[in-house]
Amino acid sequence: RVHPTNPRYFTDGGGRAIFLAGAHTWANLQDMGLMARTSQDPPAVFDYDAHLRFLVRHNHNFIRLWRWEVPKWLDRQWADDLPGRLTQYCEPHPWPRTGPGMARDGKPKFDLTRFHEPYFERLRARVMAARDQGIYVSVMLFEGWAVQFVDAWEFHPFKLENNVNGVDGDGLSYFMLATNAPGRRVLELQEAYIRKVADTVNDLDNVLYEVCNEAGSYSTAWQYHVIRYLKEYEAVKPKQHPVGMTFQYRGGSNQTLFDSPADWVSPNPGSADERYDSEPSGAYRGKVILSDTDHQYGHSGGDALWVWKSFCRGLNVLFMDDYSPSPSWQDSARAAMGQAVRYAEKMDLASMVPHDALSNTRYCLANPGREYLVFQPGIRGLFSVNLRAAKGECAVEWLNVTTGETRRGAPVGGGTARSFATPFPGPAVLYLKCGATAGAADRAPGGWEARAPREEVRPRFAYDPAGGRDGK
Questions:
Q1: Do the beta carbons of residue 172 and residue 180 sit within 8 Å?
Q2: How far is Cα of residue 131 from the mean position of the Cα atoms in its chain?
Q3: How confident is the model at residue 329 (pLDDT cuts 50, 70, 90)?
Q4: How far is it, in rounded angstroms, from Cα 295 to Cα 266?
Q5: Strands of 62-65's sheet, edge to edge?
Q6: Which tens digits make up the pLDDT trace of 424-448?
Q7: Which of 13-17, 137-141, 171-175, 365-369 bottoms out in mean pLDDT, i.e. has the lowest?
Q8: Confidence (pLDDT) at 85
Q9: What gap in Å lies between CA 282 and CA 280, rounded to an integer?
Q10: Which of 403-432 are b and which e, b meaning 16 or more Cβ less than 10 Å from the residue's Cβ?
């Protein structure tokens, strides 16, 4: 649930604030060939165990578990970038393909009144496997991008020709509240599916929900309804889980997210006073914010600077990972998320909020007088921190963001503003633990259960302040 005293974060009920960060990828629930250069039916089996090992190696603690609604689509949007990668296939799906009759993809039609149990068994098993590695999972209920931008609706289970139940969701109206009889029938089946998902994972502690990926602005009333419906359904069950709403593409607005009944949101870059893609706002907007490169850049941006700026502005961070092999520009973000998780677990994060004015770097997460986490993005090697609220000495620790190296510095006294010079070139993090708690700078991480120590990942990249592939 949302932390009661620091609602920028969630809590597990033990009082600690939980910073969420992790890399997610398209095929981590259903097998599908989104990044494959050739079509394959059935699609290649995704190595989920390797996915979890990758996350653990990088000290990540969160994934979006992706849902794809259609068994086939002609992916014209990607044809120029990846020649030959046209027809995509996906399986399994929530409903069985029983027939009689054949759907538009040449396979038996779906029966929307029955559930395909292997789909839900896989869903539960993957959430449990992530839990066993200390990883939270957002279960995506619906997916709207494909219906808008490729020919996916032709093969959608709710298109009249593809099911045995006479149900026709009629394209984009599938993501809208309708008052006519066909629309009410679609909503009834959607609600039955929502109940089935909740029944499948309700007893698990590492669950969040996401209503829908990238349905457009036309979906607002429907998404609000899904959020409320899921909350009402879980209210009488043993556990309740946070429900999130992510940016509506196209035509959405961040304000629609902040006005929603959701517990967490993922905005797009936003207005000049938000700038979540470059100089993220630290203003509290009434929701837990999971800032996701998927809604900032797609899968072509985000780096260590973005991660640390976002973390020091009180945001959680997610990375849309196309699994480009190392070494690559993506290593920067992958490594930085793990670094940030490590510091979030070390600090009393529940007491930490953005205090930009305490440092001339303008990136400072602090509990004044007790703890300070300052990010220096590489543009100044000498910077100041206002320690007037601190009494006694402050323990000093430096993190080299580029290499992952940590280094102890000489303690400094509080009660005044202090200047600090980074002991290495490039972006750096300064962590100060002050007063009576100065010796407790290495607090052990916690979780819903004890976790084995994770292998530290040393980034394999050279940071270039002149810019990366995303132009930043």
A1: no
A2: 16
A3: confident
A4: 7
A5: 21-24, 316-320, 288-292, 264-266, 243-246, 207-213, 136-143, 62-65
A6: 999 999 999 998 556 544 443 333 3
A7: 13-17
A8: 56
A9: 6
A10: bbeeeebeebebeeebebebeeebbbbbbb
Mean pLDDT of the residues in the chain:
90
Give me the half-sphere count of Cα atoms (radius 13 Å) on the Cβ side of residue 323. 17
**Partners of 365 in the beta sheet?**
354, 373
Cβ neighbours of residue 98 closer than 8 Å, sequence gap 6 or more: 108, 109, 110, 111, 114, 164
Per-residue pLDDT for 299 more than 60?
yes
- For the segment 62-87, the average pLDDT, to the nearest whole number, is 77
Closest CA to 6 of 265, 351, 268, 451: 351
Collapsed DSSP state (helix, strand, coil) of residue 224: helix
Residues 373, 377, 381, CA angle at the centre, nearest 5°? 90
Q: What is the pLDDT of residues 256-265, one digit of tens each?
A: 999 999 999 9
- Residue 341 is encoded by which pair of tokens? 């998780």
Strands 108-110 and 97-102: antiparallel
- For 409-430, write each residue's pLDDT tens digit: 999 999 999 999 999 999 999 9
- Enter the DSSP assignment of 37: S
C-alpha pair distances (Å), 353 with each of 87, 143, 162, 266, 350: 47, 33, 51, 19, 8
Encoded tokens for 385: 């921190």
**Please, which residues have CB within 8 angstroms of residue 6's CB and are 6 or more apart in sequence?**
17, 349, 350, 351, 352, 353
Phi, psi of 344 (to 5 degrees): -60, -35
Helices marked H in 67-116 — which ranges? none
The pair of three-digit structure tokens given for residue 192, joined into one six-digit string = 């039955």
Residue 235 CB-density burial (10 A; 0-12 exposed, 13-18 middle, 19+ buried): exposed
DSSP string for 148-215: HHSSGGGG-TTSGGGBSS-----GGGGGS---SHHHHHHHHHHHHHHHHHHHHHTT-TTEEEEEEES-
Average pLDDT over residues 267-283: 97
Q: What is the largest CA-CA distance in the chain?
A: 78
Q: Compute the average pLDDT of residues 381-390.
A: 96
Amino acid at 454: R
